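The protein record filed here.
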Amino acid sequence: MRVVITKKAPARIMSRFGFISLVTSLCAGLYFPSVFGQEDSKPLIKIVATGGTIANTLDGRIPIQQTIADIYENFPETRELLDSVNIEIDDIIRLGSSRFTSKEFLKIARTVSEAVKIPDIKGVIVTHGTVTTEDTAYFLQLLVRSNKPVVITNSQRRHGTVGNDGDKNLLNAISVVLSGESVGKGVMVVHNQTISSGREVLKTSGHPGSFLSATYGFLGLIESDRVTFYRSPTRRHTHASEFDIDTIIALPKVEIISAYYDADPALIQAAANLGVKGIVLNGLTPSGGPHIDQQPILEELAGQGIPIVRTARGGMNSRVTVNPRDKFIEGDNLLPHKARILLQLSLTKTSDFKEIQRIFNEY
């Protein structure tokens, strides 16, 4: 295994780990295969490191290359896998993912999109905090235009602590990238030996094993002998996506409003006063509709050209059906925060309600 750091990592040789040569490129992001000779026959994996618990210790966050070095040194059984690949690291962010804004999401998307364009790179792993893993996963699912495997992985427990799950998740992510079956599967989340689609994955608690894939189940599993896929995403994604990160400078303002009894419509008007370009309604199950007190103001805003997307608070177990009596957009079975992402990206292309509905039908 060779690890090459191309962005932001400290320029130092970790001499106590002779198996790794940490090379800081003078030209950030460039890779020099001629320097390394026969090593280039090994698959090259890009790791885009963004912080999170997977690179967090009791003493604070560490570079992801240190995490890899610790795994190699402390767990000899991992060396065969790690020695079978070369790793290039872009250490672009070192934060807890609850602190991410659209600026960070766009930065991750641009970095991954540039990485998959490099012919030598077999696939990309994004190390990430668990809190917004599902947001980044769907964001990349819509924006990375490649059939190369893109895997997001994380940890619920800090590196170097009892019961840490991040080390195993990272190794499993490498196995998924190496699997030929992972090509064309879109953006995947690897956690607790499971593979989830970026469209459907949801964090349900703070414990290992809390990333689930709703009614439709995991894409596959990672076990000691192999990576096995049981299904593929059917909605448009990655290489088939119409969205282009190169054309997006900023994301339109979209807010989420929930439906419940005695809901005050003034909150919706306040969102309109703030200049929202769209609203996602976390509506009543199964219709995704608003409370009766919310209906008039939502219809008024829709009439003014602000798209209102209906989702159901029953989550991905409940598909929202088309209601021809209103002017709202049907959000299918998307979770509200994922519908918000899709609406933001839709609004970078069109404000036509029929076109936005077509996008929600396809993605």
About this structure: The longest strand covers residues 86-95. The radius of gyration is 22 Å.
